[in-house]
Amino acid sequence: MPMPGKLPALLTSLAFVLVNAVLPNISIAEENRVTFPANIDKLVHYTTVTRGEVEEILTTQEAIDAVANNQPIPYGTHVVIRFHRDREITRYFVMQKGRGWGQDYPNGRTKDWQFQFYNADQSIKLEENTQRCQSCHARRASDQFIYTFDELKDFQ
Asked: Any idea where the Cytochrome P460 domain is (predicted)?
């Protein structure tokens, strides 16, 4: 039987074991309609950002042309961040625009854009919650919700 002074330490240890045993199996990825782009090899690499990892950002030529002509990015467009560390792909972040997708959320958040993280093998990264991505990108409404909009606009 544990001694009264040892009980908090025992409970803390037990909680640590339970959290580490259970949490890795819990999915926090938000349900959405995003698909991994089947044509990823045909997407255009329009800019690179380095924030700890090298982030190559890609999209379709149609999206580039639309932005260059001050038009909305077309429905069906994917914007992909391909993350690299030590020259190895570690994961992907995919934004996809679909007609009417903003209706999936009560406040419309990022209109018709939805987000998903994928593992290097292109399977959904279940432990990533994209709700925080949507809340951040929502601040970029004037740039079609894209943080690298200026780079996209300037790409030749």
From this structure: 45-148
Residue with token string 């995919």: 94
Strands 88-97 and 53-59: unpaired
Residue with tokens 């926090």: 28
Indicate the length of the chain as a whole number. 156
Q: What is the CATH number of domain 29-154?
A: 3.50.70
Amino acid found at 90: T
CB-facing half-sphere around the CA of 46: CA atoms within 13 A: 27
Which pair of tokens denotes residue 3?
């001694």
The model's pLDDT over 113-145, given as tens digits with 9 standing for 90+, comes to: 999 999 999 999 999 888 777 778 888 889 999
Q: Tell the residue number behind the tokens 């379709």, with chain if given.
A: 60
